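Hi support team,

I submitted a single chain yesterday and got back a structure, but I'm not sure I'm reading the token output correctly. Could someone confirm the output below corresponds to the sequence I sent? I've pasted both exactly as they appear in my results page.

Thanks,
R.
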Amino acid sequence: KAEIGEILGVNDCKKCIIVGAGNMGRTLATHMDFHNRGFSLVGIFDSKESYVGQLVAGLPIRSAQNLDDFCRTEKPEVAIICVPKAAAKAVCEQLVLLGIKGFWNFSHYDFGAQNQDIVVENAHLSDSLMTLRYNIKD
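Hi R., thanks for writing in. Yes, this is the structure output for that exact sequence:
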């Protein structure tokens, strides 16, 4: 287990942030065991001012307006994108300029093709559900 963890890089935690503190962002922050998967969740951001200041997984939700300053100070390498598709392109372009190297993308916007220097893992829950249905034989 230790050797596999070393190969996967889970023993050296990378700082990550969540952008989008709606249902998906909150669920991931609360229930995902980031630390044992090689990540340290250091910030949660949203543009909805009514969310700002609320605690999720022990972290305050910060205003999206503070994203630049936070990233310059904390230097996260990974962003989990939980924003609507319409906002995803601008958010991801901003984060690439701030030094984000990897994205776990729940936005349904595929921005990896335009950015060859970053790693994007697109999470399409509907694809997973359709795969499950296909594999259930009548």
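A quick pointer for reading it: The CA atoms of residues 19 and 45 lie 5 Å apart. Let us know if anything else looks off.

Best,
Support desk
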